[in-house]
Structure formats: C-alpha cells, structure tokens
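User: We ran a pulldown and think these components assemble together. Before we commit to crystallization trials, I'd like a predicted model of the whole complex to look at. Sequences follow.
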Amino acid sequence: MKKTHLWWGITVMVGLITVLSFLIPAYAASQKITIMVKDKDDIGRWQVAVERASQADPALKDFTIVYETPPDVNVAFFAEFGANDAPDIVSIDSFEVPSWAEAKYLYDITNKVEAWDGWAQYPTSLQEIVKDRGRVYALLKQTDVRIIFLRKDLLPYALGSQWQPLSWEELLSMARSLKAAGMKYPLAIQSGPNWGESTAMQAFLPLLYGAGGVLYDQEKGKWVVSSNAYMDVLNFYETIYKEGLANPDVPTVASPWMTARGDFQAGRTAILFDGQWAWGAFKSGGSLEVPNADCNVGFIKIPGKNGGFSTFSGGFAWAIANKGLDIPPAHPKEAFELIAAYCSQKGIAEHAVETNSVAPRLDAVKVPEYAQNKYLSWCTAEVLPYTHYRPALPEYPQVSEQIRLLVKQVATLQMTPKEALSEYAKAVAKIVGSDNVIDELGLLK
Amino acid sequence: MNRRERIVLILFLLTPLLAYLIFRLALVPYGIYYSFTDMAYVGRKAWDWGFVGWQNYQHLLSDPDFLESCKNSFIYAVLCGLVGQFWLGFFIGMLIWEGKLKGGMRGWITTLLTGVAIAAWVTTDTAAGFEWFAMFAKSGGMLNRFLGLFGVGPIEWLRTAGGWLGIPTALYALMIANVWKGTAFSMVMFSTGMEGIPREIYDAVKIDGANRWQEYFYITIPLLRYMFPFVLLMLFSGSFNQFGFLWILAGRTWPQANIGIYSYIVAFSRFQIGYGAAIAVVLGLIYLAFGFLQRKLRAEPEIITGK
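Assistant: Here's a predicted model for the assembly, 752 residues in total across the polymer chains.
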C-alpha cells in the first residue's frame, strides 16, 4: 500500500515539474531580450553596448538580457523560430540577409536606420549588402577588404612607401621590370578552382568591377555572362601568365595560397593580391613572417583598368528577428537601441580593434584606439569607399564555381579568353536559366 | 504477481515504448512527407512550401553529388566490411584461438591483442575520429611525420580530388581508419565460432596427416561458413551507415563522403529540407533491405548441431 503512495507521489511531482517548466519561460519572456551570438567574445562587447544603451534609455534597465551561444547558430535559430520563440537579436552573415529576409525571419528596420545618425557612416555598398529588395534588415558589425600586398624592399627603385598604380598597365609594367631584373614570379593572383571562393572575391570580381563591369544587374535582376569588361579581365590574366609574370603552378596546385604566399615570403614575388587579413601571416610572429615586415611589406589598393580603385567586402551583422512566422518581435524598439549602441562609432571601433578586423563605419577612424592601428584604419578610410559586394543569390555559389573554371582555362593558357568566356556564358545560362542572363557580346548565339 | 505490481510493470514498459513511438517512429512519416515537398530553411520556401510529388526523387537521379556519394558509400562498405574487417577479423580471431590453445607467453600476447582490438571497437566515434584526424593531418600528422623520416611526403591523406584507381585518396584513408575501428566485431565472432568447433574433428584430421593450414582450409573455414553471410552483412551495413566517425574525419570538407553525410549537408548546411529528406528516405530503404536480409541470414551452426 505504501509503495503505491510513493509511485503516485513521484508521478504527481514529475507532472508538476513538467507543467511548471512550460510556464516559467512564458512568464519571464515579457521582460527579456535574447541575443543569439556566433562568437562568444561578442558577449563582452554586448555588455558594454547594453550599458551604453541603458544610459540613453533608462527603460532598458528593466530588461533582462539573455545570451544564447548554440554550437550551430543557424539550425538553433530555425528551431526556435519554428517554436515561435526566436531570439530578439541574431548574428548573421551579410550574405545570408536576402534569403533570411525572404524566409520572413528578419524584422524590417528600414525606418529605424533612416532615423539613426549612424547609418550615413556606412559606405553605400555596405548599406546595400544588408538590404533585400530595397529594405534594410541588419547592421554590419565587421567587414573585410581585398588589397594588393607589396614587397617594398624588392621594388626596383626607391619608391618610398608611396607607389600606388593607377591602372592595370602600371601594375603590369612594374611586374615586367621586376621580371627583367631577375625576379622569378613578380606577381601572384588568385586563379583557378583550388583557390575556392578567393578566385572570385580576391581577384576576378574586383578586377571586373574595376573595368566597369558587373556580375549581376540589380535593376534588371539578370546575370551578366559576357561583356567587354569580362574580356578585359581575361586578357589581363592571359598577359600575366603568357609573359611568365606569375607562377604557372598557381592555377593548378592543390594548396595554391601556400605557393603564392610562400613565394611572397621568400621574395620570389613582390606583388600579391590577397585579403587584408593575410597581413597576420606576414607580420612579425606570423606563420609566413617576412623579415622586417613593418618596413618591407606595403599595402596598395587594387587599381581599376584605367583609373579608380576597386575592392570587395563581406562581413557579419546583427539583425532583429521575428518571433515566429508572421509574429513580430516583442521589443523591436529596445532591440534596435541595443544594436545601434553596439554599432555606434565607438562600439564598431572597439569591435574592430579587439577582433583585428576592418571597421565598416567610416567615422571609426576618428576613434583614437582604432586610428592607432594604422593598417586597419587605412583599410577603412582609403579602401572601403571603393568596395562592392557579391549578389547574395542562391545561384551565386555555382556561378562562382564557373568563375574559378573560367579563370583557370585562361591562366593555364588552355583556351583563349573568348573561347573560355563562351564556355562560361553557356554554363551560367544553364545554372540561372537562359532568360535570366545578359549576353552583351552575343556569345550564346 | 498481484494486480498492482502488474500495473506498475506495465507503466514501466509503457514509458520507453511511448518515448520510442513519439520520438522515433512518429517522425518517420514526417520525414517521408517532407521528402515530397520543396520545404527549405531559408528563402521564400521556408514558409511558402508545398507538395511537389516525385520531383526530389527525380532530381536525385541527375544529381552528380548524390551519385558520387552512393558510389563512395558502396566502395567504402564493400572494401571495409567485406574485404578489410572480414578477413582481418578472421585472421586475428584465428590468432586468438591459437593463443588460447597454446597458453603461456603466446596466450598473454593474444590477450593483449584482443584488448587492443576491442578498445578500438568500443572507442566512441568522436574520440576515434579526432584520433585519426591527428594521424592523417597533412602538416604535423603522425603518419606524415613518420614518412618524413624516410624523406617521403608530405602526403595529403584527406584529399578528396584525384586518387588511385578512380577512388579519392581520402576514401583510402577513411577505409584504413574504419578497418582499424571495426575489425573487433568479426574477430570476436570468429574466435567464438572457432571455440565451438569440437576438438575431435581436428584430432581426426591430424591422424590423417593434415598440417595446420590444411586444418584451417578443410575444417575451420567450412565449419564456420554458416557465420559468413551474417557477419558480412553486419560489417557491410555497419560501414554503409556510418556517420559520426566519418563526419569528424572528413564530413565538413567532403559532402560526398557517403549518403548519410550528403543528406545531412543538403538538409542542415544547404537548408534544402525536402531534398535532404528524400536522400534520407533512400538511405532508409537501403538499410531496411539490409534488415530483411539479416533476418533471413541468422547465424545458426546447422552442421554441428546436426539440424
């Protein structure tokens, strides 16, 4: 008899605990803001941002801020959204903004950013990168740029630190004179499938946009598969490899960045296309340390074909999430105040200094801590105004694979630029559909 | 057993049964249903999804990545299970049995060997995955360091392109790791089977003048043959369905490593839930076929028991 009492007791207890555990979060939800972060180090910076936002709006002090750090942010977010319990603020790759917005995951903050003084400090491209069909859904916290690294100690004459080619021709003539002076492979440029996304992002796309071309026509909503700019870029690649200005292994070797960066470190190469983060490898203490790197390694912008400059950026952003499908967030005003505090001039500068990344706000360079880092503040002040971004469409990864192949065919001199481009045009038309392409050179006929 | 006790007993049985029904079986129809939709996690299809009939299944047939993952799954399962684990297991099982017969020093060595093989077998997939990752790493990996002593390499063991005989280098590396990990099963099966063979039969052939090898060839193998289909099937399906171990070793960089990994990547990394579910259903059907075969091939020693 007593034993059954025990069983009933246990059953009732378990039942009560189950019911309570469902009730407690629902009760607490009215006064909390949840932030889902990918990088755990962001939590410390969030605490600073919350502090600053609470000073401006004391009402925020009534909120409990909860941080979630799931191992897989995407999948955790989808699950919470499906249960109508999505976090208020979520970390997102800028490349994911359109697909997340179309999935109705993100809350439209267009009106809020327009009323916010920080918005104008983002360069136009970095405003566009967080938009979907003209509406803003996120704010960038961090970005990156593509540049050219120089071995200043190996340049043929005393250029000081000021050599900045203003056209491709100037870049080529420098490479030619280095070659004539006995340097083995003066120039290194991403070319071929083994580079992965780098072929498109670090070299091909900056060059294409620097020649006045585009990959995707935003207004018409179509992919450009052939144009004079394409031909210019491919001719540039062909010249480099035909004249032996670049290491012929680079388009085909298994780990090409090791070859290219290795050549640069060893002084076989003096001009290297790369992401701004590669400096971490070359500086003293890096994995490919260049002797006396502070003096010997220089940085320049990627020149346009006949003037101007060009680069590409991506980056991570903060977005306000809807609670569930067609359920708006509980506290959008407060959530935006928090994001705006994180992405304030000072907040962005601190994030960039602590994570050694490029600050996406132009006024970050006025913050002393960031200005002290001459390299990063140069990236923000000098390079970022010329930046572009990739079309964040589901087909992009496949198109990028075709770009890698296109560059490889030309760089290995297996095809002429025109032959390779017409293969490329056909392949892209197959991927995106022949109605969705612009074929300026008529290669598809 | 009085009535009260019986109720408690039923309650105890009911709880796991319910949990199994809700969390495992009830999800299967969902998976099958999703495989006929174009549901996705991102983009418009996250909410505007619907029934698309056989479209996902038709797409499977023309998806080179899926076909590649099928090819890799079968090569891996055949070479690991049927060739590597089976014969190596038989050989080690033989050594253990011999060791047991002889005793002494040899007995100790075989006990050690058994321990090592079983330790590999029971090591969790996660730990074993990282262990082999450290072994195969291109720079600083144990294998390349060892080869470096002889001036060979470094070899990119986990390279997924190129390879030998049309099989990527990475698949060879995975097979070596998996043979190491999975051999203990057949070893235990065979050594137990060998113990069950009556000594008199061996004594009889010894009198007829058979040597050690002839004993194996004419007595051990024929008398153990009843186990072969069952063990082969267990090994084959075990390798075919592997996930955690391969995921840690190569999954994140090699979506086509096997069907399970490809299904996971499609669903949870490319976020095409419908298509990922279709791949999982195909994998489930293949596995179900193994299950039926397994029921047919129950290991029973009919010769010895005289059935």
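The first strand of chain A starts at residue 32 and ends at 36. That may be worth checking against your pulldown data before setting up trials.

User: Thanks, that helps.
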